[in-house]
Amino acid sequence: MIRFEALAKTYGARRAVSDLSFVVARGETVALLGPNGSGKTTTLKSAAGLVRPSSGAVRIGEPPRDAADARARAAISYLPQRVSFPETLTGVEALEFFRALRGAPPDRVPEVLRFASLNGASARPIGTYSGGMVQRLGLAVAMLPDAPILLLDEPTAALDPDGLCAFYGLVERRRREGHTLLFSSHQLGDVERLADRFVLLVEGRLVADFTQAELAERLSSRGLLRVRLARRIPGLVETLRPLAPGAAWSGDELVAPGPAALRPRLLDLIREAGAEIRGLTSEEGRLDALYREVVAERS
Fold first, then answer.
1. Beta carbons within 8 Å of 168's beta carbon, 6+ residues apart
2. HSE (side-chain half, CA atoms, 13 Å) at 73
3. What is the Cα–Cα distance from 129 to 137, expressed in whole angstroms?
């Protein structure tokens, strides 16, 4: 549905994206991750046909067409990172303009207004809106056409809790309907909740591409078991290390990194050693920690 083929884009002497190749399959939701300046916005704009590649190509749809082709662009709805509208227009007027531009039916305006949840402000000038309201209006505009492909650049920026709930509901509905989504976000909670795959860019290059299952496995291996004991048992750490090589003391706590599946056996070994357990906690691997680790490795 979206195919990046050795995409490269330079702006003068600055290379924004280098040799980027990956595929977003039909019906898949893929998150673009990366630090600021890693090429996420350029990647999305290239897919939207708004940026011409310096080399390589982006193909859209089935059959695949160049992203700049009018038929490819008709299959896409794009939300830019920075949303702005003429401040004198009302929310309804802005939606009506874009509805006509994209050829959406008139009943789409009240439908997306319900999603936007502007709290009765749709008849007010946009210049009176808060930043979160403008962002919600931008999302409503992106949802006007029934496009099979959604490209969203930082879609949850500035959204309040009500806006986030509405956005999650909308994305989950679009996923059930078989739409294809490619979005960027710095909100790792959004990524974990919404994405089927995670593509990580650093300095314009693809450095990691995880499916949900692969990510779960990577995070599982980064979990921790913390066990507080009445006293230290000599040789206990050495007993655990065949299963948990990173096992170590931390004050009066025994810390054993590793997947959750190993924890029952680790606890059995601790009890068999005669230790009195006073308390225990377990921590799962976190996406933000893995993200920072991969970025540090590749920077």
1. 193, 194
2. 11
3. 10
Strand pairing report for 205-211 and 197-202: antiparallel
Question: Structure tokens of 216?
Answer: 């779960």
Per-residue pLDDT band for 299 (boundaries 50, 70, 90) equals low
Question: pLDDT tens digit string along 119-168?
Answer: 788 999 999 998 888 988 999 999 999 899 999 999 988 787 777 887 88
**Angle between helix 161-176 and helix 131-142 axes, rounded to 10 deg:** 10
Closest CA to 254 of 274, 272, 285, 231: 231
- Two tokens at 186? 């710095």
Containing 173, the helix (H) or strand (E) segment is helix 161-176
Residue tagged 């227009």 (tokens):
89
CA–CA separation, 44 vs 16, rounded Å? 12
Amino acid code (one letter) for 217: E
Are 92 and 55 spatial neighbours (Cβ–Cβ below 8 Å)? no
What predicted TM-score, i.e. pTM, was given to this entire model?
Answer: 0.81
Closest CA to 42 of 8, 86, 65, 19: 8
* Alpha carbons within 13 A on the beta-carbon side of 244: 31
